[in-house]
Structures are given as C-alpha cells and as structure tokens.
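=== RUN LOG ===
request id: a7f3
mode: sequence -> structure
chains: 1
length: 140
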Amino acid sequence: MNRKANKKDLNEVIQLIKDSFGYAWKKTHRKFDEKYFRKNILNGINNDICTVEIDKGKIIAFAWASKQKDFFGNPCGEIKLIVIDRDYQNQGIGSRLLKHSEEKLGTKDLRLDCLCINPASKLYKRKGYKEFIISFRKYI
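=== RESULT ===
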C-alpha cells in the first residue's frame, strides 16, 4: 500500500536512506550528513511529491519527485529519490513508485540522476530513461 508521505514519516525515511545507500557513501568517500538529509527530505515532503510504501505498518520504500523548469524555462519533472528496503527489492515496488511519480509529475520531460554503481540504473533503462548528461568527478 502506498500513500503520500508526511512529516511523521521523516525518521523512518531517514533510516531507510541510511540503510540503503551505505555502499554509495563508502564508494564515493562521502559521509552521511543526517542534518542535511533531514532538512531536504522534510522540505520535499512539504512541497513536492513524496510517497511511502508501507508493509505491516513499516515504511519499506520512499519516492520523491519534484516539478521543475529546465534551463530554458520549460516544465520538467525530476525524480529526486527512490529508495527501497533491501528485503523488498526486486518485487516491482520501484517500478510502481516510478510510474506513480511520473504520473503525478504530469510532464513529458522526466529526469533523474543515478550513480553509475547503483543497481537501479537497470530499472531506469528498462523504463525508457536514457543517458543524457555524463558527469565526471575526481576525488583527490
């Protein structure tokens, strides 16, 4: 079952993000800044399209999408985050949340960023997302 996220979900959503993306922080030599995430996720819950998936009273997934304008002022939608509890991955939840977010955004120009090491990149490619920008980084 999914529903609109609310501020009471914040602690569970933060924990889900911590548990799910630890590999990315280790791989990119970054630290989890809980204060930063708390502020931004709460802002998203209050102002954007945020959905939680619940099973047995527990939040098992979170999706965050935002209506934006591109560089030229044209409307576009951005999928900011989809995170799914590891025990619930590969069960179609990501596909459902992605479709739900796309429908709520209501625009033809959809964007998302994904680390190249993220296994979800396969899902996004299957759902029609194509590489658009290549971003390079160097850690010194």
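=== NOTES ===
The chain has a mean pLDDT of 90.
Strands lie at 2-4, 49-55, 58-69, 75-84, 110-112.
=== END ===
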